[in-house]
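Let us work through a complete example step by step.
Step 1: write down the sequence.
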Amino acid sequence: MTKELRFTSATGKAKRLPQLDQQQQEAPLVLLQQSGMESEKKTSPNAHDGVIVIGAGAAGLTAAYDLHRKNIPVQVLEAHPTEFGGRVRKLEGFADFPIDAGGEWIHFHPRILSKIVDDPSFARNDHFEVKPYKFAPFYEFRGGKKWVLKYPRHEENEIVYKFTKGYTWHDFFQNFIAKSLDIQYGCVVQSIDYSTARITVKCRNGRVFFGSQVIVAVSLPILQDDDITFVPQLPPAKKKAIDNVPFGPGLKVFLEFSSQFYHNNFGIQTKKHGERVFYNEMAFQRNPNKRNILAVYVYGDVALKYTHLGDDAIIQRLVEELDGAYKGKASRTYIKGFVQNWTCSEPFIRGAFSSYRKGMKPMWTILQPVDKKIFFAGEHLPPNGADYGYVTGAALSGRNAATAVQCVQKGEKPPFLWKAWMVHVLGTVMFGFEQRLFFNDTD
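Step 2: predict the structure and record it as tokens.
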């Protein structure tokens, strides 16, 4: 099964579809202080103004939600001027129902949603429905000449789940997680000063926030590109680990046609590292109007042939490739398209997800808190060490970070993540055993 983009508002131009507003207007200059922050006498590590969570994606939202439920003051800072979600994004107006323009799949059994909400009584059927799906049979167009029914791999035989009836991952976080949180938008964090007991977080728009702990849940390239200055600097081993995690380019495209001339699941062969997967978006939804919408997901080195192009050019290239595989039927039946370019159109994301194709050691290093003050969360840090790149892995990473913060505030040692440690050990020994993410066809 293909790894999916895990979790923000669509920014690319949609052919015959109005471009969504991406005005990035800074918020007014405000000095925010929470209750109790005015006391400069609070110097004990356990005395806190509250916890600051940086990033309102799946990891950051779930971390803040868990802290809020435990009555711990928490503030969420989101760089986007108007929206939460990160790589969880809802596309409206393209089809008869909303579409997941980012993270789409529910990996593992849907009861994992109860674990994210942290409520055993949570009954999904009271709120939404999910549908199982398998990416087999999977066809591949090879060498520009022939279709091949690929031998089912583990990933393609894996049963995944998807929300139905127009429900999306974004709706899930809106309805169960985000609505109870205080999210400050337009807060592009520039620096985190943790040199004293009170941590100071400064944003580009001049706003200043204080807290006792900080959970950094931003997209990995933000840390790799040093967009945030840490005072003091992060330990060299942690910065090296962050820089050593591959983070691939990616995009997602939706194409509507007047007829379904294509297979439900297929790929077009590439010798580049990554994957290019096509699937029938309408297979998951009620379709009374008989619309034909094909989803295209491209990740890794192969995505570089698209990401630098404009939206219209991306659509044109994909339609031409489909023409080659289906004897010109794509261009003859094409109606409209939409591009979600996660690499070049999202300044606070800059790609798809992590891969760890060079080994798992960096994950374990990044997971360790810094000075009991700075904690990290994200799709690249799943608690079980294996579910990186998934919305579910990101969300549970946020819960793990929140648990670690609570332990520190109580003077306790955070729980040992033995699953992540085992993956780290096995990954170090076997080096790169997790390359199951990618298509590596070279024949």
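Step 3: interpret the result. The longest helix spans residues 391-409.
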